[in-house]
Amino acid sequence: MEPTQLFDQTSLYIQDCGQKGRGVVTRKLIPARTTIDISPILLFPSEEYTLHGQYTQLDHYTYRWQGGMALALGLGSMFNHSNKPNVGFQRDFESKLIKYTTLREIQPEEELCISYGPNLWFPDMEEEPDQISNGDSHRSRNSGSDLSDFSDSEDVTGEGFLARLQLSDAEEEET
Ligand SMILES: C[S@@+](CC[C@H](N)C(=O)[O-])C[C@H]1O[C@@H](n2cnc3c(N)ncnc32)[C@H](O)[C@@H]1O
């Protein structure tokens, strides 16, 4: 495996984001298309996840992965959800990494959010009050298309990468 360069994250910090719990915030302006983190992952094989993991706190933090579910080590586990995300992510199955890239310019003191997909298991506090649904707290994160499900390992750099991040889940399923 090639060595992976990690990132200087001195401008990012973890903050209490009210009912969302902790979240990731930036002190400085971050330009669009900036890679802000590469998180190594810890893979839980499908069987282990089905037998145990889905009944634990891990279920709130894991990403779909080839062969099971993955816990992002580092910032990747701390991004909250927004249906208008300002950060996209791309899984690199071969290198067991998730790369996070800004989708637009992000202002100082703004929270960095990814999209978990359409099937949330909690009431979305980013929504307007009359739009908040209850979510389904009993539904396993693994039981729907929670996270846009990249089916293959791809080059994680370049235009194709960012364009793919911006696909909606519906478009993603069609590709
Ligand atoms: C991957 S964790 C994110 C970090 C988490 N906030 C923490 O403090 O550990 C996912 C959990 O954060 C909370 N969360 C994330 N985005 C949210 C949102 N838009 N509205 C409400 N809760 C949210 C939910 O409890 C969810 O199960």
From TrEMBL:
Transmembrane segment boundaries: none
Q: Which domain of life is it from?
A: Eukaryota
- All residue ranges annotated as the SET domain in the record: 2-117
Could you identify this protein by its name?
SET domain-containing protein
Classification via Gene3D superfamilies: SET domain (2.170.270.10)
Where does the record place the region Disordered?
A: 124-175
Q: Which InterPro entries match?
A: SET_dom, SET_dom_sf
